[in-house]
Amino acid sequence: MDVSHKSSSGMLQDYMSIDDILMSSERLPSVFLVPVKGLGFLDASTNKKDIAVGTKMDLPLWLVLSLAHPRKKFISFDYTKPYKGTYREILKADASVVDLHKIGPFFYAFGQQLLTLNHNESLQMAKCLVLTFMERFRKIMDWSVNAYEHDNSERQEKLDEVERNLFKLGQKSLQSFQQWEMGESRKLSSSELVSRHRKRKRDMSE
Amino acid sequence: MEPGDVEFIAEKELVKIVPNFALGKIYFISGDVGPFSPGLPVDVPLWLAIAIKQRQKCRVHPPEWLDVDKIETMKDDEIASEFFTELPNPHFCEVAQLLLTHATDNIPNADLLRTLIKDIWDIRAAKLRSNIDKFVKLQAGHARLDNLSQMEINTIRPFLTASLDHMYQLRISQSYTERNMSTQ
Amino acid sequence: MDDLLNVSGVSNDDSDEEHLTAAQVLEKLEQAWMNERLSPNLMECKSQIVEIMLEQIEEMEANIQRAQKGDLKISLHRLELDRIRYVVSSYLRCRLEKIEKFAPILLEREKSKSDDEPSKLSPEEFAFAKELVGNVDNHFKSSALKHMPRNLQNIALHEITSRPNLDHYVFLRVHQREEGVIVDPETDDHAEDRVDLEVGAQHLMRYQPIEQLVENGAVSLI
Amino acid sequence: MFGEKALDLIRELHRSRDGTLGPYNEDVVRQILEEMQILYEANQEDVAQVVQNDSDQSSLTAIQVRHDSLQRNKRCLLAYLYNRLMKIRDMRWEFGSVLPPDIRRNMSEREVQWFSNYNRSLSSYMRSIGPRGLDLTQDLKPPQNVFIEVRCVEDRGEIELDDGSRILLKKNSMHFLPRSQCERLIRQGILKQVA
């Protein structure tokens, strides 16, 4: 049971979460609205000392969240492709066939973070996130309760990180239920870490 | 919770056994059981019935509902009904499974029963999935699920609650955005 | 022999549990165990129930020691003891996992709560949580923070620890009727979604609106 | 961009999601701390200038960027340390109070210290439960029988049971033992439950 997945607001990042840290390192096309002294070297396309007004750079989300904050407005930013009009239309047409991992891989979480910043398409994007998950939900559920069929790993590849986690939860329940049906659920077994550790040692000594 | 935990809880259900030994009342922490006299039926918790049966010291009386005719009717009702039908025991699946494993020789048509029960499980599971999908599409915040057994709940729980948690967060984000837009 | 093993009459001085039989205490323990396993946050500790149950086990074990080996009755008693020990262990283990996860937040709550609010942690759990937080804090300081620029050396662990998700969805069964529980206040501005909880009914909803009902036994998590 | 080294650390953690513990990356930790020092010193200089000439927007922006980068580095470092501690914690529950040497080798000196402190806190908590203490690392699954049948997976020589009797654990030998006596050996992969 993962009970501390996110804060209750759903918009705050979990400070210690590896996923959230990776998610917030994804980049956004940004434009500097103010000059930045001495940090020109961050822009690989020039060798100027400072960053001039109007400089375009792809900045990581963690920096955008600070610099594009309505109180500062040091930069303007644009949504990346998956959150823009064309893609929203594709998702609207049939969300369940889209490879969210390729355009994600943190499609929902990254989108939710973008919603904390003002953008003229934010409402359409917010709705798109809800609808996309709603449309994909049935498939993820049906896949996750089906015994490991050959194409399961292929299916998984098209899922965003949150969806993958859901899929794994479903698979895990299925496996423990099947174990129960075979009367194995209450047998004592060696710990997972121990087995893995032993296996690795064996592999290494071979 | 693991299926083993749900089964463990189901083992508190009472079942009738016919002992082949004599023994006075046993004062368990969970309550008194017995006395036991050869040939005289007595109600005991399932965990105890299994333990005694394993020592070949009793015959188990399957509950009334664990019967081919009754289970077949149940299956038909389940197919016919849009909703979940009421189960004869809140731990229907677990109790049946335990008895069919540990007291097979005391249950007539055990193999057929096993198949029928699996059918009922599958019918209900499919029903549950389409209900859940409706629930998610309606963006409902709440559902009433009266006749679901604990094992059924337990099997779908990790996936379902995590999905709903995710959905809720997305809806929060949406309503935050709506509020934000209207105040601009 | 029968008398020897009869421990079902419990007396525990001036406690809430004093009128209960051992079987009733066990039932309460099982209820607390289920709720704890299924709730997203740490619930109030049922120390007294745990204490009584462990004493019962101890007493029964002593009796078994004195009894004859290989006896059917003895082996059945043993099985029951194993069952109860499992529930106690699983209950405390589950609590410990949550305590480890949320320790800084739990300790912060202990500091800020009013005196009449019950503590969620037993004194032993409190001591454990304190040591744990101290150790983590120490590790952060010695491995990283003290080598950082001065203005970055401070942290408040309770602010950077992940919080229990009170919006987590749970399944519950109703024991006492409750009217007009608001299930979905946050996402719908116009009409709050209210439900009546009828005795015996089963529901699926967020934990937060029913947290108190679980604590006081009006509903239980399933 | 600043914070790239820190991200490497997090990626390293992400790659070992299966619970394994890679070697403590002393080197990268040091490099991150160095980057932080440089960022800090640069900011000190700019701050001094801004104090003299308070309308310098370009310095203010630079200070902001460095400040965010410092916080980012700090977050990544702490998350790295914390997630490793949680893995080490899990190992206490899975391997017991003595860790295999190859795992220990991957821990920093301070992590070893943390592990032994955690061990001590946990034992003293478990001793404090009930009249005689309760080992919470046992009774991990709901019991079905008092006695269980086990097969020995590797030679382990003679062991003594609680009741004083001794048994010889020889590879492939079968035993019928009280569950409570062999749970730990099963967890460690020395015995395997058959029925």
What do you see in this structure?
The complex is a heterotetramer of chains A (206), B (184), C (222) and D (195). Chain A has a domain at 80-205: Methane Monooxygenase Hydroxylase, Chain G, domain 1. Helices cover 48% and strands 7% of the residues of chain A. Chain A contains 9 helices and 3 strands; from the N terminus they run αββαβααααααα. Chain A is extended and about 70 Å long. Chain A starts with 17 loop residues before the first helix and ends with a helix. Chain B is built from 6 helices and 6 strands; from the N terminus they run αββββαβαααβα. In chain B, α2 (46-54) packs parallel to α4 (92-102) and α3 (68-80) runs parallel beside α5. The N and C termini of chain B lie far apart (47 Å). Chain D is mostly helical and 195 residues long. Chain D has 2 domains: 4-128, Methane Monooxygenase Hydroxylase, Chain G, domain 1 (Up-down Bundle), CATH 1.20.58; 147-193, Ribosomal Protein L9, domain 1, CATH 3.40.5. Chain D contains 6 helices and 5 strands. In chain D, β2 (157-160) and β3 form a beta hairpin. The longest helix of chain D has 39 residues, at 57-95. The interface between A and D is large, with 40 and 53 residues. Chain A: Residues 196-206 have a biased composition (Basic residues). Chain A: Keywords: DNA replication, Nucleus. Chain A: It holds the Pfam family Sld5.
Can you summarize this structure?
Chain B has helices spanning 3-10, 46-54, 68-80, 92-102, 110-137, 150-182, and strands at residues 14-19, 26-28, 31-33, 42-45, 58-61, 142-144. With 184 residues, chain B is of the alpha+beta class.
